[in-house]
Amino acid sequence: MTASIPRLEAGDVVDLILSDHRLFEDLLRELRNEQNDRDALRGRIAELLVAHGEAEESKVYNQLERKDAIDEEDVEHGVKEHDEGYETLLPLLEATELYDEDFSEKLHEFSETLLHHLDEEERDILNPAREEVTAQERARLGASWAAERNRMLDEGCGSVEQVRALVGEAQSSAQSSAQSSAQSSTQPTAE
Ligand SMILES: [Fe+2]
Ligand SMILES: [Fe+2]
Question: Binning pLDDT at 50, 70 and 90, where does residue 176 land?
């Protein structure tokens, strides 16, 4: 399955996100098969990962937090798992040999990371969205998430350079948050 990633029409945000999650699973399965065109498939999964995840962060997570469906910790955890997805995807995109044991190990690592995130997101973010948010609001979020996801795909996202930049951003934001928590722990406490 190396056909281009389908663009999504508007709908309930939970249903739309779930349909992409099933597409991730299909793409991972296709990538495991050595008889397939792994170069094309890694490109497909990279563009879907970036468009899907970045659109969740900009169009869904914060909006669900504002509706009190999820809390700040859920948002931060989701973003952290997206970053881990990019970090484990990058070695796959940089690989020059796509049919050896080393690629297989990199694929295993990426697959574990991504499947873990899909599972957690479906339980900890999509379940509350179903329960705490009205159908009308879910439709509004679905339209805005799908539009952003489609826009990124149309622009051509998921290049190795873009994924490298996303990994760099994730590492520098992790560093600065570690520094600020180290600073706050050394601040004298008010008497
Ligand atoms: Fe997702
Ligand atoms: Fe996600």
Answer: confident
The distance from CA 43 to its chain's CA centroid, rounded to whole angstroms, is 15
> CA-CA distances (angstroms) from residue 60 to 22, 24, 39, 74?
19, 19, 31, 12
Whole-model pTM: value is: 0.93
CA of 82 to the centre of ligand 2 (A): 6
Other CB atoms within 10 Å distance of the CB of residue 138: 20
The rounded Å distance from CA 28 to ligand 2 centre is 16
pLDDT tier at 183, thresholds 50, 70, 90: confident
pLDDT at 75 over 80: yes
Residue from 33, 42, 62, 51 nearest 2 by CA: 42
Domain ranges of the chain: 13-170
- CA-CA distance, 51 to 146, in Å (whole number)? 9
Closest to 24 in 3D by CA, of 2, 43, 49:
49
Cα–ligand 1 centroid distance for 184 (angstroms): 33
Distance 125 CA to ligand 2 centre (A): 9
Q: Give 188 Cα–ligand 1 centroid separation in angstroms.
A: 41
